[in-house]
Amino acid sequence: MILITTPGKVGLEAARLLAQQGKDVRVLARDPHRAAVLEQEAVQVVEGDLDAPSTIDAAMRDVKAVVLVSPAVPAQELNVIAAARAGVTHLVKVTSKASADSPIARQRGQAQIEAGLIASGLSHTLLRSNFYMQNLLMLAPAIARTGRFGSSAGAGKVGFIDARDVAAVAAEVISRPEPHLDRTYLLTGPELLSYADVAAILATVLGRDVSFEERTRQEDKQAMVSAGVPEATAAMNAHAVSLIAEGEAAWLSGDVPTVLRRRARTFREFAADHVSVFS
Ligand SMILES: NC(=O)c1ccc[n+]([C@@H]2O[C@H](COP(=O)([O-])OP(=O)(O)OC[C@H]3O[C@@H](n4cnc5c(N)ncnc54)[C@H](OP(=O)(O)O)[C@@H]3O)[C@@H](O)[C@H]2O)c1
Quick check: CB of 93 below 6 Å from ligand 1? Predict the structure, then answer.
């Protein structure tokens, strides 16, 4: 049995891919309704909370492999790692940039979790991803309404990756872990794009004007709060986006094709798959 710790952007798609390969998959969900799209798939959905170790222990029954993908809160992910030590033979952790002295709390959290994972002695693989294309879906209502969107990323470039490709790599590695033991993969799409490049691609795919305007970090944070993101998370995410302007996300890797033996999806393909959301 493979346990996927949440039904988020990566967890849902990884569960679907694994179920389609005939694997036994279980997803832990704080709110099982969030996993309703899996109803058509042979996936077990169990209610649980990563803050409640007893629910993690219950979800871990008969589990031999874990995909650890959650909001990188150290206590929560360390709970999963502790529960996995009993019988799990491999764990795939979805992560981002990790640094103990980063100004971004999430990156400090990732460093703490990765250190705990290594100290646990569990066989593992780290999937260190660049920004997900799916983050841009937050901007979709503004783009649909006004044809404009803003960000404090400035002219900074990003090696955006489609979260569906992160899920595909997680599914491949957890299914056949042997070549991937104790390795770290850097996951990006195939190209570096600025937000102005994103606007130009959206304009082509949608067949109408889309323009990008520079915003301040404070304006970014306010826009996220208005979209329902909690204040502290909005502040952290706006800070992370502002660092794009300084080159933080301007990196590419060939690890997706190496693991999947196919190329990573482009932003143009992502946009074409989400036309109805941006329109
Ligand atoms: N987004 C990116 O661009 C990006 C890039 C690189 C790496 N990553 C990494 O990917 C990981 C996941 O991020 P994401 O953006 O993909 O997340 P996401 O899609 O927002 O998914 C997060 C999931 O965690 C669940 N969750 C939150 N608190 C929980 C709790 N206490 N117990 C059980 N489930 C809980 C959420 O459930 P609810 O629906 O109930 O809230 C949701 O299903 C993080 O480690 C992040 O650093 C993200």
Answer: no
Burial 80-112 (b: 16+ CB within 10 A, else e): bbebbeeebebbbbbbbbbeeebebbbbbbbbb
Q: Whose CA is nearest to atom 13 of ligand 1?
A: 71
Which pLDDT belongs to residue 149? Answer: 95
Task: For residue range 17-27, list pLDDT tens digits in order.
Answer: 999 999 999 99
Say what the pTM is. 0.97
- CA 8 to centroid of ligand 1, rounded, Å: 6
- Give the domains, in start order, of the chain with CATH numbers: 1-122 (3.40.50.720), 130-161+187-279 (3.40.50.720)
User: How many whole angstroms separate alpha carbon 66 and alpha carbon 92?
Assistant: 6
pLDDT at 112 over 90: yes
